[in-house]
Every structure is written in structure tokens, then in C-alpha cells.
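job 3f2a | input accepted
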Amino acid sequence: MGNVLEVKGLRKTYRMAGSTERLVAVKDTTLSLAPGGSVALVGESGSGKSTNVRVLMGLERGDAGTMTLDGRDYDLTVTPKRPERRVRSKVMQMVFQDPYVSLDPRQTIGAGLDEVLKLHTSLSAESRQQRIIELLESVRLPHAVAEEGPGPLSGGQRQRVAIARALAAEPKVLVLDEALSALDVATQNVMVALLRQIQEETGVALLFISHDLPMVAHLCDEVLVLHRGTVVEAGPTSTVLSDPQEDYTKRLLDAVPRRGWTPRRRTVETQR
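job 3f2a | predicted structure (272 res):
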């Protein structure tokens, strides 16, 4: 079986304000994702993680690059038209970072899920209601949540709803752009376990964007380390994180808090 997602030679630049120069945000990203697999893009802020995702989702045009998604080829330098965007969004769904702005406060949770089901499935009204119950169960939420708005829900519950909404389209790839970073550590751990279980139950592949290396270690099979838009190291997560070859990857790992860890402090020599 082939990969569900393949990206080759993705490049994205931005014109700098008041200048003819262009800033290279992404340089020649190449990645592959197997059905049911999981790949992480990691790096500090500004490394190009989210820019990669915006181009793949069709939210921005790349300067170069191609994508094969579920056997269909896409030119990443072309803005997708509505029919193509709809096809792409059914196969590849995204969960955003902030659970407090990703849900419409004017809709009940059930209405939001029903909206996605109407768009991406041909289910009858009765079947959609049953599917809404199944989706809530899949993210470990009670059925009664369907009648509520997002207001009373916690951040973790809102992010569960966001995942359920993404799963409503029955995607082959679930993209999580820092989707757990706004949650507390205990809730993050619960969500990681939930995502692993959803993967086992549905076979969905995960493209996980994060700066949190311990979380990546628990969730992803493969990792790509980005620095200033360039993939500087890639491979199995266990190998890259246990035996990094690049100085940048080593610096990221050195910055991970752990028992007995104290941050390195810069020292300034005094002149005599």
C-alpha cells in the first residue's frame, strides 16, 4: 500500500516589507506519511512548521512543490478552486491550536457536527444524528454535549469536539497544528492517549506540528526537525531524539525540562 501523503520540494517565500528581498519561510520540504502512520514537524517558533501546513491545506500558495494526497496529485503553487478544496479537505482535516476560538459560539456542538456531515456525507437526517452520537463517543464525550454550546466546556473538552468535527469528514489524514499546546500538561497526556486510540480505531494518519518533543516522542513514528525553514534532520522519532546528529536538534533536546534540569545561563566575562 502506498503513502496517503507525499510532499516533494515544497518551498515558500515572503516578500519583506519595503524591500525587494524575499524571506525563505520553507525550503524544499519533502515528507511522506503512510496510512495510519504519524509524522511530526518540530522546531522553534519561526522554523516554518505552520507555513508548511498552510500550503498543504491550500490556505496559501507555495513557490514550488507538489503533493500527492490519497492518490491524487496537487500542484502546491496553484490556489485550489472550491471543488478541489472540498475534495482536499475531506481527505485531510485540520485541528487548530486554540480550542477557544475554533468553535462557533452561536452553534450547539451537535449543529456544528451536523454541518460537516451534510457537507461531506450523503447520510439522512436520522443517520446524521446517530453519527453525531458516535463521533462524541469516539472522543469520550457524553451525548448530552450535542445540545450544548461550547461556552460551558473546558479547553480539553473543546479540543475533543474539534477532533470529532474533523473526524466527521472521515479523513485519511488528521493535521494537528500545535493542537495540544494550549492545554495543561495533565490534559495533554489524556489527549495524546486519546489520539493514539483514535488512530487504532479509525486508521487515520497524523501530521503533528509541535515544539513539544516529549509529546512527539509519545505520539509520532517519524519526525522532521525544521530550522529556519529547512529540514535539518529526519528519521524515526526514537532514533532522532535518542541519538541526534545535528547541533540544532541537540539544542532543542537540551532545552527540554526534566528532573534535575536547570537552564543553561549565558555568562558574561568581565573586563579587567
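job 3f2a | Confidence is low (pLDDT under 50) at residues 260-272.
job 3f2a | closed
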